[in-house]
Amino acid sequence: xxxxxxxxxxxxxxxxLVDASLDTPFEFEIGDxxxxxxxESCIKEAKVGKLQTFLLSADEAFGQADxxxxxxxxxxxxxxxxxIELNNGVEFKTPTGDSYAGCxxxxxxxxxTVNFNHPLAGCDVSFQVEIxxxxxxxx
Length: 139
Hints:
By secondary structure, the chain is mainly beta. 6% of the residues lie in helices and 48% in strands. It has a 4-stranded antiparallel beta sheet with strand order 2-1-8-3. It has a 4-stranded antiparallel beta sheet with strand order 4-7-6-5, with no helix packed on it. It is elongated and about 55 Å long.
């Protein structure tokens, strides 16, 4: 696997900034889970030392929103200490230890609608990246 040091900017198709590392280089290794695989694919194609922009459709980026990933849950299923507010992020652990993050989309009395889709699901994005360094990972 390769290690990279990059500067990047990820924006929504509307131009809204989603994430960026423009002042401080971001260091990662392909496959380490720090970046989504769709962004890693762009980096693999990019040239060292050249600022490049990749325009990704929703399908190429984070996928389409999946209606089955939107769940209506009862307020009693949430930890009492959790502040249940619109647009709050929530995380649930499964009995096997996996974690699922979601966002509270709607509150209707005791019915809480949680969206477990990626926040950018269904969105076209622009990924601008400059690779500062690329090196082989020690085996």
